[in-house]
From TrEMBL:
Chain's role: Mediates influx of magnesium ions. Alternates between open and closed states. Activated by low cytoplasmic Mg(2+) levels. Inactive when cytoplasmic Mg(2+) levels are high.
Similarity comment: family membership: Belongs to the CorA metal ion transporter (MIT) (TC 1.A.35) family.
Species in which this protein is naturally found: Rubinisphaera italica
Subcellular location: Cell membrane; Membrane
Record-given protein name: Magnesium transport protein CorA
Reactions it catalyzes: Mg(2+)(in) = Mg(2+)(out)
One Pfam family linked to the record: CorA
GO CC annotation terms, alphabetical: plasma membrane
Membrane topology according to the record: Multi-pass membrane protein
């Protein structure tokens, strides 16, 4: 392999790419496409009731048949086909629903069939130092079974597991619908710390864009914009998903759960608005960076132009008296040399004074800041109506 091919492979491997895991064109509906890059499948099971909490029980099929218990099967990783098919058969997942759960990524949506509910959503969590990991999470509910499919190990559901273990709140006494709501609510709430982190990061980058706009700053601005766009793409469809669940005419979720789900819908609206604002801020910040770089370049060009403007007449004078003509009276006069120096100095200082009067040698930023602050202080806020 040539060096150019190796470099191209390295660049492509380090770039986030959109990959659709789909069966071959013309395949029948319900065909699963398992990716070689998918993580190995790990299954965690929690079986619970008001007075029962079991982790990874041995007699899982028997507990599933006993509707007194609620069973949460958490599947992390989509790389082991046999294990996924076993879980699908145990939970009675239809082929079309299983296709949406395995062939990722799918559009975020909610669908129902014969008292079975499937919600496909996006979970976002921190990755590395500053990056975000966005993955598809599929939530399937049928009778007393809830199955979650995740693309990789790790999630934001640790508080839910702790609440089930300690018996806190109504979760242990709730239905499978309430568990579905809790999972969705946790996914939505996990967006806000990431939004706050990105907002703080944009504020810091804005400070550097105004005070120290360098070429190294551009990479961080582009990275932040890309992360915000990815987060916004994950958050925006959640409004439609929750709206579908709330307005579903088949009453797939209980009335008490719908009340809680409306609160989650409000949180999704708020997260979507904030992500949209951050997306616009990231674009404006790039424009601000470009303007600041242009202003700094103009300042440098102005300094060079002023220096050239000063030395052009001095070069002209030096060029005249540097000519080797025989009859040049000033060359033989005693006052010739100091007179030329006096003329050149007077010319340079005259130009400097002229540029200073024109305001081309730099502005008094402190004076401008104080003046602006005084003017802003004089502006009165609108008075409250009586």
């Amino acid at each position: 392999m040539s060096r150019l091919a190796e470099l191209r492979k390295k660049i492509v491997s380090n770039t986030r790419r959109l990959r659709f895991h789909r069966p071959e064109v013309g395949s029948r509906p319900g065909v699963l496409a398992f990716s070689e890059e998918a993580a190995d499948t790990q299954v965690n099971v929690i079986c619970y009731a008001p007075e029962v909490h079991l982790r990874n029980p041995e007699k899982l099929p028997e507990l599933i048949l006993d509707e007194k218990h609620l069973v949460w099967i958490d599947v992390q990783g989509l790389g082991t086909a046999a294990e996924i098919r076993r879980i699908a058969e145990m939970a009675q997942i239809p082929d079309l629903m299983l296709e949406d759960m395995v062939n990722v990524p799918q559009r975020s949506h909610a669908s129902a069939h014969e008292n079975r509910l499937l919600v496909v959503t996006r979970m976002v969590r921190p990755f590395d130092r500053a990056g975000l990991f966005v993955e598809q999470v599929s939530i399937y509910r049928y009778k007393n079974i809830v199955v979650t499919f995740q693309e990789a190990e790790g999630d934001v559901f640790s508080p839910i597991r702790d609440r089930l273990k300690l018996g806190r709140g109504p979760l242990r006494n709730g239905t499978s619908d309430f568990l579905v709501y809790t999972l969705l609510d946790t996914i939505i709430d996990a967006y806000f710390p990431l939004l706050e982190h990105l907002a703080d990061r944009l504020q810091l980058l804005e400070h550097y864009a105004l005070t120290r706009p360098t070429s190294a700053l551009l990479r961080y601005l582009v990275e932040s914009r890309n992360e915000i766009v990815r987060l916004h793409r994950a958050i925006k469809p959640q409004k439609e998903v929750l709206q579908t669940l709330i307005r579903n005419k088949q009453n797939l979720l209980g009335a008490n759960v719908l009340v809680h789900l409306e609160d989650t819908y409000d949180h999704a609206l708020q997260a979507s608005d904030v992500s949209e604002t951050l997306r616009e801020m990231s674009v404006n910040l790039l424009n601000l960076y470009m303007s600041s770089m242009a202003n700094h370049t103009n300042d440098k060009m102005k300094v060079l132009t002023i220096m050239a403007s000063i030395f052009i007449p001095l070069t002209f004078i030096a060029g005249i008296y540097g000519m080797n003509f025989e009859y040049m009276p000033e060359l033989h006069a005693k006052w010739g040399y100091p007179a030329v120096w006096l003329l050149m100095s007077a010319t340079a200082f005259s130009l400097l004074y002229y540029f200073y009067r024109k305001g081309w040698l730099g502005e008094n930023n402190r004076e401008i800041d104080l003046t602006l602050r005084e003017h802003l202080a004089e502006m009165q806020l609108p008075q409250k109506p009586n």
